[in-house]
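Hey, I'm writing a tutorial for new members on how sequence and structure tokens pair up, and I'd like a real worked example in the thread rather than a made-up one. If someone can provide the structure for the chain below, I'll link this post from the tutorial.
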Amino acid sequence: MGILINFLLLAYLITALYFMPPAFASVYFFVSFTGFLTLRFTLCPSCKKYNEGCSLNWNRIGKFFGVASCKDDRFSFLIKLAVFYWCFVFLFPLIFHLELAVLLVFIAVFQYLNCSKCKIRRKCPFGRIFGREKWEER
């Protein structure tokens, strides 16, 4: 399931870049690419599920690049930053091409299925949105 979500994300980003004017596309690509790498190499290793089987398989990618698990006190801040980042990545392209919403629906459905299986969904804003559970601090 994680591989399918990652493929849909990549398809969404490529499609969004295709329909944007060049000036916006370059800024969007820079922000989405650097933000994506920054969050994956700071947020993911501080997650409790990083070594125990991440539902999105980022632990495998992190191990490939030599990123070890760590206890980070900034987890709460980073997860909130991730919410704003993903809102930008998904909503900004809709300004230029509304038909991207169809692909966004597919991503949301698969993310819902993924979050419903995750064991730390109570600590994550995404899991809280999809799982309708109360926020618990780490």
